[in-house]
Amino acid sequence: MHSGFYTIASGILTRQNELDTIANNLANIQTPGYRASRLVTSSFEQEVQKRIDANGETVLGSGVAYPLAVVSEELAVMEGGTLENTGRVLDFAINGNGYFNIQGADGTTYLTRNGQFTVDEQGYLELQGIGRVMGTAGLLKVDGQDVQADATGNLFNSAGQLLGKLQITAPAQDTTLTKMGNGMFTAPQGAAAAQNYSVAQGCIEKSNVNMNQEMTNFIAAQRAFQSCSSALQIIDEIDRKAVSEIGSIQ
User: Fold this and answer.
1) Long-range interactions of 39-42: CB distance < 8 A, separation 24+
2) For the segment 68-95, what is each residue's pLDDT rounded down to a tens digit?
3) Angle at CA 80, nearest 5°, toward 39 and 171?
4) Residue 166, Cβ neighbours under 10 Å: how many?
5) Staple partner for 110: which of 55, 100, 184, 196, CB 3.0–4.6 Å?
6) What's the first-to-final CA gap in the chain, in angstroms?
7) Burial readout 122-143 (b: 16 or more C-beta within 10 A, e: otherwise)
8) DSSP classification of residue 234
């Protein structure tokens, strides 16, 4: 098979992944606390030269025949979004560093900046579709909608009784969060109590997706995809003519 097929096919697959990522960003533009994603690409040759183990990345060698493009990783843009005043009692936003902690149905602890909470049938504070909100002393049971919060995340009922404190944590320094979708992250290397933050009640943090930037990226990726498709058709036509010529000589 013509080597150009491999090169162009890798380009098509990479651009398709890029288009999917941009589409997901646009679909989550209204998701509170959502972080936009970006793809990091590299050549196939660079990828096969590396071995990743407990000691980090090790260079193995070289010698790949075709210049192929691959997606090496997907990164989240961690720049914060703007705060929007909703006036809703169970909406919370974090000013500064840190993430809310949510206990998923499978027991996984998710980190998120989405503070658009509700109260479930048992009276626990929850993030719908994800799980219950964690406090510093366990799951937060608030019973009703009449909840007041101070800047440190302490929650009080209408009688002024302390119900608990929102658990707000940050990943260890120089570690990377794993993006799980829907604005959720996990911290494989652990997280500790956040510092330098304040909690704002009646607010949510909007996603950091920039519509203009995403549309610009989408147009660029779509044109690159179309260029690869056109090049594939050209190579296919060249091969078809070559086969036809060989057949006529015989």
Assistant:
1) 39/14, 39/71, 39/73, 39/74, 39/75, 40/71, 40/72, 40/73, 40/74, 40/75, 41/14, 41/69, 41/70, 41/71, 41/72, 42/69, 42/70, 42/72
2) 555 556 778 888 888 999 999 999 999 9
3) 80
4) 23
5) 184
6) 21
7) eebbbbeebbbbbbeeebbbbe
8) H
